[in-house]
Input
Amino acid sequence: MIVINGGYHEGGGQIVRTAVGLSALTGKEIRIDNIRAKRPKPGLSFQHVCAVNAVAQMCSARTKGVFVGSKSMEFLPGKYAGLKKIKVKIPTAGSIGLVLQPLIIAALGVKEKIIIEIEGGASFGKWAPPVTYIQNVFCRAISAFGCDVKVEVLRHGFYPKGGGLTHVEIDMRDLKRADLVSFCENAGVSGVSVASHDLERRDVARRQARSAKKIIHDAGVFERAPIDTRYVNSVSAGSGIVLRIGGNMFLGASSVGEVGKRAEDVGGDAAFELIEEYKMKACVDKYLCDQLIPFLAICGGSIKTSEITKHTETNIWVVEKFMELAFCVNIENKIVSLRT
Output
């Protein structure tokens, strides 16, 4: 059994998500102690419990200590039993994107299409990648490794009630090596600005988009910045914006509406963040890099990012516990690759 210190380095929920996904993928049993030791509320949250139970459903795993607040858990994977449709319920405004992460990692070992239906949860969350980011940045990036993941938002969810509805299709039959290191001077930027219908009278989605466009235009970095504006049905009022740079680069930025925060500031925060990412001349943004480490380990290749974060260093540490490989991290050039 692999014993993992959940308080190592970054000490957050990423350790749980990556370890559980890799346990299912490799068939190796794990125990995680000190779960989320460096967070204000240590232990498993609702979204972690949902994610672990969903992966357990996929690989017929036995679990111990999987409950809200638990600081130690075990995951004892079985074999993939041919389950082609998985249903997940998130009873809170927990992040849909974070619940998806370990499921997608676990699916790397499944050579047939899997459908995941997620009921509940939030499509936009403050400390998590929005589902729109998952669609337009993360899924594009892992497609370079041959991972075909399609995410469809049927209903958006916002804090505090969540209530999202998401359909996901995963197909991992054509995995391949990918080198995500190229930078393009003439890349295009686009985005999606979302708000619930009850915020339409205040023009929130359009104000977010207008602010982002103005800042991008004034910076003189991109010629155009088309941003799709959407008003959506949801059980809670809320808004958010996701911007991305396309082409052969995988740079994204997002911001979420909050009580007391102007729509212009929501759009502005995402725009400033995207501009800073672009100025670093990287291919992969700093929030995406750590999410790609398991795919790099399985498929091979290299990643040039804007910053080697604690999340990336932590995920490398977790992955190396499961696989007989070592990563090479070039701090100066911000390139992560497999050591040969």
Observations:
- The chain has a mean pLDDT of 95.
